[in-house]
Amino acid sequence: MKKIFFVVLLTGIITATQVKAQESFYSIQYSMGFGMGDLKEFNESASFRGMSLEYRYMMQPSIGVGLETGYNLFYDRLDYATYTQGTQSLSGIQYRYTHAVPVLAAFDYYLKPDTQFNPFVGVGVGTLYTYRDLDMGMFTMESDVWQFALRPQVGVMITTPSADLIIAAKYFSGFKANDTDGQSYFSINVGLVF
Amino acid sequence: MKRIFYYSVVLLFVMAGCYPDGAEYYEDTDVVYTNYDDKYDFKSKGTFSIPDKVVKITGALVDGEDPEFVKEPYNTQILQKIESNLTALGYSKTTDPANADLVLFPAVWTNTTIYYYYDYWCWYYPYYCGWGWGYPSVSSYTTGTLLMTLVADGEEFVQPTNVWTSAINGLMSGYYDVNRVNKAIDQAFKQSPYLNTK
């Protein structure tokens, strides 16, 4: 599973680098994720293993459209405990993983283009793929789902002599599909703009 | 454009190195499962019987042959730990299973899983997919299972009936760790408070 996700992201990287830049930019960001709702019930801990890749084409100095993908891994190790349902009980250590991969079309509005601090707001529409894995002993339970997702965000682009930076707060909201509750999480992203 | 590619690849490798590994020690894979018949009145019972050997299920038993058994001293260690737990729950041991309220049947088996993979460079260059590119990598692991079954044969049953089952499973380390087995047996009875006759 780990291999599949890195293949997807590497493909995204290779594809992104093939597009010619015309008043456009790319961004690579480190992403910290904080689960919400059903995702948080499964994985309480925050994700500090995440990244985001974005491409924006500037239709106007204040309007950018493009694509975005990313990856966040939520992981928890639950101490040895007993779980009972009816007459059955099972004891052991649990390892819980949630892999989240959004693929979105994005639209951003930049409030102060061509200034050093350029705040922006945006919205993304697309899909959120979530793969969930629960390991207990030598046994594993897996499930995955593709969900329609919306992603509002706010952030700021900072222009410096040495590098252009981006800081953004995003909220990924997946909608219920196939009897799976919508998976959602909030992320803080920090990265570079090229 | 090149810079984002290089930075992205570096970040990918960093994240690959940070991927959590899950279980680190053999005992982290130990699980204990129990299930029972909630209509059976354990409190009114008081005696149990247990064989003096733990049978080893191999799946290769031929009609007329004796089964394999767990070797000493492991056999005695397992039986003594089971007996001590049942005694602590208020049961008395009898040697004749016909006179016992409950008979505990212990059994063990191992399962070896062999897996191999090849074409593991397929992701890099799909041209090589399906040709067995790269030497196959073979690995295996063995799990052990201890099964304990309490069987009742009282007036309320037409035939001997299973009223409690416990299965203990874990990854085998290659050497017998009595502490792992004892801890798991204790846990099986600890999570079965309904067995208590006191």
Task: Show the helix and strand layout.
The complex is a heterodimer of chains A (194) and B (198).
Chain A: H1 2-18, E1 24-36, H2 37-42, E2 49-60, E3 63-85, E4 88-110, E5 117-136, E6 139-159, E7 164-174, E8 183-193
Antiparallel strand pairs in A: 1-2, 1-8, 2-3, 3-4, 4-5, 5-6, 6-7, 7-8
Chain B: H1 2-17, E1 31-36, E2 47-49, E3 55-56, E4 68-69, H2 74-88, E5 92-93, E6 102-117, E7 137-152, E8 161-171, H3 178-190
Parallel strand pairs in B: 2-5, 2-6, 3-6
Antiparallel strand pairs in B: 1-8, 3-4, 6-7, 7-8
How is this structure best summarized?
The complex is a heterodimer of chains A (194) and B (198). Chain A has helices spanning 2-18, 37-42; strands spanning 24-36, 49-60, 63-85, 88-110, 117-136, 139-159, 164-174, 183-193. Helix content of chain A is 12%, strand content 69%.
Give a written overview of the molecule:
- The complex is a heterodimer of chains A (194) and B (198).
- Chain A is mainly beta and 194 residues long.
- Chain A has a single domain (2-193), classed as Beta Barrel (Porin), CATH 2.40.160.20.
- In chain A, 12% of the residues lie in helices and 69% in strands.
- Chain A has 2 helices and 8 strands.
- Chain A has an 8-stranded antiparallel beta barrel with strand order 1-2-3-4-5-6-7-8.
- Chain B is α/β, with parallel strands linked by helices and 198 residues long.
- Chain B has a domain at 33-112 and 145-195: Double Stranded RNA Binding Domain.
- In chain B, strands 1, 2, 3, 4, 5, 6, 7 and 8 form an 8-stranded mixed β-sheet that branches.
- In chain B, a hairpin with an 8-residue loop joins β7 and β8.
- The A-B interface holds A 2-3, 6-7, 9-10, 13-14, 16-17, 21, 26, 28, 30, 49, 51, 53, 71, 73, 75, 77, 82, 84, 87-93, 95, 97, 135-139, 192, 194 and B 1-5, 7-9, 11-12, 15-16, 18-20, 22-23, 28-38, 123, 141, 143, 169-171, 187, 191-192.
